[in-house]
Design a protein that fits this description.
It contains five helices and nine strands; from the N terminus they run αααααβββββββββ. The protein is of the alpha+beta class and about 180 residues long. β2 and β3 form a beta hairpin. α2 crosses α4.
């Protein structure tokens, strides 16, 4: 963990000098320099005072890089296809256990010939169009703005029953860290 590097980045972004941090925390400039170059690890109490001087939550300083905000610009989205129908899937963003996808379902197509199951929980929001969704014995039709959720370990299917392209925003939660893509 490189807490010192994070402290330096935050300090510089906020235009705060080491001297100002030291004045507020009572720490020496030499010690702060060693902290910022990751040559020494401050105690939690010291980190608390540094966080207060930087006006950031202590927890933020303790986050690993991969736990911080992940930005994906529209033009940088990874685009893949899914299923036999080759549905267009835009990968919006993700954390270790949650992924957000935007799925385009052309008229008359579905997520597969038959219901399928996989690990995880899903939440869906219909952004555009009209779809039919089924999971086990449950089935319903959904229009723009409607939402539904399910445990994906029960076989499920989504089909575009409208007269235009359907777009569905899907959030998928899995217990394990998954980097692979799986069928919706």
């Amino acid at each position: 963990m490189e807490i010192g590097s994070s402290i330096r980045l935050i300090r510089k972004r906020k235009n705060i000098t080491i001297a100002q941090i030291c004045e507020e925390t009572g720490l020496s400039q030499g010690f702060m320099s060693q902290v910022e170059t990751n040559k020494t690890s401050p105690s939690i109490t010291t980190l608390e005072s540094i966080a207060k001087a930087l006006k950031v939550p202590l927890a933020y300083l303790l986050l690993q890089k991969e736990e911080r905000m992940n930005i994906v610009r529209k033009e940088e989205r990874r685009i893949t296809t899914s299923g036999i129908e080759k549905l267009k899937v835009e990968h919006l963003s993700s954390t270790k256990n949650v992924r957000m996808l935007l799925v385009e379902i052309p008229v008359g197509t579905s997520t597969g010939e038959a219901p399928h199951a996989h690990e995880g929980e899903e939440v869906h929001v219909v952004i555009k169009g009209k779809i039919y969704a089924e999971q086990g014995e449950d089935a319903a039709e959904f229009g723009e703005g409607d939402s539904f959720s399910w445990n994906a370990c029960t076989p499920h299917l989504v089909r575009n029953i409208g007269e235009e392209l359907a777009i569905v925003l899907i959030s998928i939660y899995t217990e394990a860290d998954h980097t692979q893509d799986f069928l919706l």
